[in-house]
Write a structure and sequence with these properties.
The structure is a homotetramer of 380-residue chains. Chain A is α/β, with parallel strands linked by helices and 380 residues long. The first copy, chain A, has 3 domains: 109 residues, Acyl-CoA dehydrogenase/oxidase, N-terminal domain (Butyryl-Coa Dehydrogenase, subunit A, domain 1, Orthogonal Bundle), CATH 1.10.540.10; 107 residues, Butyryl-CoA Dehydrogenase, subunit A, domain 2; 138 residues, Up-down Bundle (Butyryl-CoA Dehydrogenase, subunit A, domain 3), CATH 1.20.140.10. Helix content of chain A is 51%, strand content 13%. Chain A is built from 12 helices and 7 strands. In chain A, strands 1, 2, 3, 4, 5, 6 and 7 form a 7-stranded mixed beta sheet that branches. In chain A, strand 4 and strand 5 form a beta hairpin. In chain A, helix 1 packs antiparallel against helix 2, helix 1 packs across helix 3 and helix 3 packs parallel to helix 8. The longest helix of chain A has 30 residues. At the A-C interface, helix 8, helix 9, helix 10 and helix 12 of A face helix 8, helix 9, helix 10 and helix 12 of C. Chains A, B, C, D: Pathway: Sulfur metabolism; dibenzothiophene degradation. Chains A, B, C, D: One of its GO terms (molecular function) is monooxygenase activity. Chains A, B, C, D: This is Dibenzothiophene monooxygenase.
């Protein structure tokens, strides 16, 4: 599928959604119509059964159109992708309930039919440190009661269900589990998101005081969240990366257009800035695609995971750096609100700050290069 | 005078004016009350008779409170400072009219009494290239008629008069002159400013179709604008610099506060980022103060002018770089609109893009280092 | 073929050849024995018939052992690779002599049997600008007389023949042709090479006053040199790149070893430096391999050529930057002569300075990004 | 005194001493003749009674001539300067012996008469961590016996006496004292120095097994070494800084010369590199001079010490960065051994690696910026 026309449509609306901070409803109408909400849903459930590498293609393209829309989509793909790609054996090996499989299939089928999922992991104070999560759950007769507050929930208020990380309130040790909590009463959005960049993600706060059924426990397994973060880091660490490669590409695209229109393209320093930005973006894209290729072919191996962390680091840093440099080449006239480079300068700064931050990635990669176990140190 | 309390008041309002983009009226009420509009006015005319070095002290302090307010003030100081500090002999040497001196004194006295002046130099297409100015003037019986449009006029709509660069419409060669045009009919503001950063400068467009008297011609000299740019580059090139040193200082200040509050200050990478930012800011401040000291003691000399261009380059680059790095240290929670670091990340990017841009400064300084005449090439 | 053991042998001798500046005779004995001098020779002539991508694999591996040895090998591979891979049709299309094909096959067969070729292109004053070459040739009864002086001839004195760029002394317009000039009388080496890095390349001066036969004219075509530079930039621009990726890898390898031995690997800044170096090297390697893959599959296309220039830029810059940073992490004890990181710091600085320099690459890539013809401007 | 002619003489010999690694005897003959060995000796003892600021002037000038010579001189100035500038009251307050004062005056008088002193602080394994020193001393009837090995002793074999840090072998807690040990039997130089840069410092190993008199204990105080490092950090941390500012200046000087001679000075990227290097060097010099001014006027205050650490960080980083960039501008022809830029590229890399390394300085400065006690953590 040629996604370029779709990306163009996203791009044409990006300034408006950035200004208002509204949920990009028209973009998601388009995504839904293009069948992209079912991208990760297996074919036998009505989806496209995409691999992580195919997800990456899509996310780069969407990110080059509108970073915020691509980030919301990334969260949806993370939920559906992780569900679709966790091997049944692994679920069984960790004692997962058989009933989970039917639940999972319903969830994935719904996605193929247009349902949108979001992730509610971060909390104020704890950030994205899963082990520090204070949102709690306790068993009830018919399932679980989940209570607490989340932040940075992209797409909040527009998702059909939320993947919620919560701790067992009855356990001394941190036992962190995932629940898929449907939108509805007891799941309240507080509009807190008003941000430098990626404004249309609507990453508001979510307050939970809700009962869910037995099968809302993902995998039917308690305490699996931290383990999953380590064995499938791609959805936590690197799925953002593709979005920021798209953003970085968009910087180049709009930079070239602006500079040519303004007749600045003959200035030697402008050309040098663009040339260096070009190779940075090309390199970041290769790293992100290499990570995606390896996740697809050899998921969870130590070497694959190194590429996953490399992808996160280079994509976030590259987007921010090229936006910084190309805006400088473009000059003051490109700092007007509504100009694509103005928005991209703000959007692009966000990647390195999303978990795992670039500084955390650098430490992880340094440890791996030194032959240590980079996950030996608690990072989530 | 201890300006720190004043800077604190500016700082407390900065988020509000940034959000609305309104002219910072309360800040200017404070500045007026503190007598700062007369900073450059000689003492015998009721002002403080400040040197460029003293201006620099003030601008750094104001910039650390609110960059946009400091930039508007900088334009006012440029007009009053250049008027006050151009030696009478120089005016006479170039054939200036004697009547100019009385006019100048009235202008400076009015500043001491609270009048605010702005600069209308840049034009769409020409940028800040004085030699490319298309706003035209022609002699009338009683003075001049000035016609054209300006852009990036900080404080537009709130100034009592504007320093306007215009070309003699009857001359084949570019003869660029300065006029001090009072606000009023024929001087219309078009609200075009809605910018990434420094939003409260209200640097709107100005449309001119107005008659002014004989003595509005600054210096009573036609064609002096380009020459002045070269012999007194400080007001064109380096007076911004002090503002951006203030902005950079403010980044450190708010970075330390945020990191301490969030308990992030013990992270080694955070400390390293702050330590490196600290020395960058300290170095930029020394360069800007050295330039100011030399402008004060030895204005216009080749060595002084090198320091002026160095000041512009290092201040703009440093502000942008430390804002970039400290925001990364601070993390996603500091990207919320209204957070000082969010605003500073946007404000700080603007310095290197204001003329002379950092790339232009680097070329000028390279030429000077190579023993060439860096003004041999037309830069304005 | 697993080249790792060979690279280890090169590595074990690198300090010695670096210290003496001698031609790495033992390394080339090993290369010859491993059949690598015939790497680019077609199989039917006794070689390995390697593609550019396969060359790249070999060059990275050799470069990780000893950069200087790999650079000499690169020159040999450039001569044999360009000869082997120039399509016969192209030669005929440009009016090449049929006799050339037999000559070419003899040359390539000799390589497979152990002959070593070098490149004599650069000249003092002209650098690598082919169009500025002053070495001249004129027709004699039986062939050509070639007269002039070359510099930066890696492997000088140890090659069996030299690819020499020379201009037609009888032509007004620059008509630059290539000759393959056998070592022997009239081809004199002047030992001028005593360099910061890559010391064992022995890139001495070559003085030519020699007669060669008709078939020494490469392709049997006069005036083809500049054209070739544009249609096959890989051998001029990017074949170095693989060597510097090897050098950069070696920096990581020796950095990890040193830091672990010294117990410095637990320092957070050390880990961060290594982590960032790791991703830079991984990215550069991907870019160089992508360029090689495209040269192999789609040689000479505009998109392939962009990757070729990207490869040169990122490989040279990355090697220099990681050597700079990792040496800083390693500390003063790694600056002792004989320490691998000390040599690598010097070797790694050379890549960006070899033609096309990084600044030239940035300009070429900027032009390409802007949609211009980057070869529209004379670069050779 | 105009030191420029002296710096020129040093510069003219620098390539030769760099190549041989010999002690720069002729340079020190010149320094001795110019009375510079008595620079820090008070006037009433026959010296110049220079302040730290005056030392800085001299060290910058010498460093611009020959970095290695300036570093040896720096060590001599550290010994004599610290002796001359430690207030008598402080010595008495810590229980120093009265006999020390006569000894100190003899030492300083000897310097004014041409004696050269060196510093023997670092040890293999411990680096410059004073608290880790293993060289031991014990009381004998008539004084002390000092036993152990030192490394990085600049000027070893050519100094008249060495300032040696040693620990009390009888004490459980680390009690580190300084001794001034005369050259002679029991003080043996092992020629280990063969380094990337600053080759002529001859910073060889020193093996000590020697008895010294009572008054060789500096200050007549045991256990004062660590305290001194904190209250007078300038001689440990920042006296190098001036040397590297000189080196950085020299990079600019030789860069301009080379680029002009080669006709490369018209290339835009070359000019931009020089322009940016120019402002970096100017800024570093201002920071180093500001630190020196404050050490002179307000020694030991927290604010002064911040400037001392800033000076070390910026001087080391700036020298290395401008050498890296200017060599790239200069191109391959400047990498020939014997070319000033070739040597400077190696010399300039050493500053950030000398203790306190740039990474340590960044941490110290980050802690100070955060309002912590940066010396609260053991750094020596």
């Amino acid at each position: 599928m040629d996604l370029h026309p779709l990306a163009e449509r996203l791009s044409s609306r990006a300034a408006r959604y950035d200004a208002s901070g509204d949920f990009p409803q028209e973009d998601f109408d388009d995504l839904r119509e293009a069948g992209l909400l079912g991208l990760m849903t297996p074919r036998h459930l009505g989806g496209s059964g995409a691999s992580f590498a195919e997800y990456t293609d899509v996310a780069i393209e969407l990110g080059s159109g509108a970073g915020a829309t691509a980030l919301i989509f990334n969260m949806h793909a993370s939920v559906t992708g992780a569900l679709a790609q966790t091997p049944d054996e692994l679920v069984r090996q960790f004692g997962g309930a058989e009933s989970f499989f039917a639940f999972r299939d319903r969830v994935l089928k719904a996605a193929a039919e247009g349902a949108l999922y979001a992730v509610a992991m971060s909390e104020r104070g704890a950030g994205s440190r899963l082990s520090q999560v204070r949102t709690a759950y306790e068993r009830t007769g018919s399932g679980f009661r989940v209570t607490g507050s989340k932040t940075f929930v992209s797409g909040a208020g527009h998702a059909d269900a939320y993947l919620v990380a919560a701790r067992d309130s009855g356990s001394e040790e941190p036992k962190i589990s995932y629940f898929l909590v449907p939108a509805g009463p007891g799941v309240d959005v507080q509009q807190t998101w008003d941000s430098l960049g990626m404004r249309a993600t609507g990453s508001h706060d979510l307050h939970l005081d809700v009962e869910v059924g037995e099968d809302a426990l993902v995998g039917g397994i308690e305490g699996a969240a931290l383990l999953l973060a380590q064995v499938m880091p791609q959805w936590l660490v690197a799925s953002y990366a593709a979005v920021y490669v798209g953003v970085a590409r968009s910087v180049l695209h709009h930079g070239v257009r602006h500079l040519t229109e303004r007749g600045l393209h003959t200035l030697p320093m402008v050309r040098a800035r663009l040339g260096r930005a070009d190779v940075q973006v090309a390199a970041a894209e290769l790293v992100v695609r290499e990570a995606a290729r390896r996740v697809t072919g050899d998921p969870g191996s130590p070497e694959t995971n190194r590429w996953v962390w490399r992808a996160k680091l280079i994509a976030g840093d590259t987007a921010a750096q090229v936006a910084f440099s190309v805006l400088e080449a473009a000059g003051a006239s490109a700092t007007r609100r509504g100009h694509p480079l103005e928005r991209l300068y703000r959007d692009a700064r966000c990647g390195a700050l999303q978990p795992a931050t670039s500084d955390v990635c650098a430490d992880w990669l340094g440890a791996a290069a030194l032959g240590e176990d980079p996950d030996g140190q608690a990072r989530w």
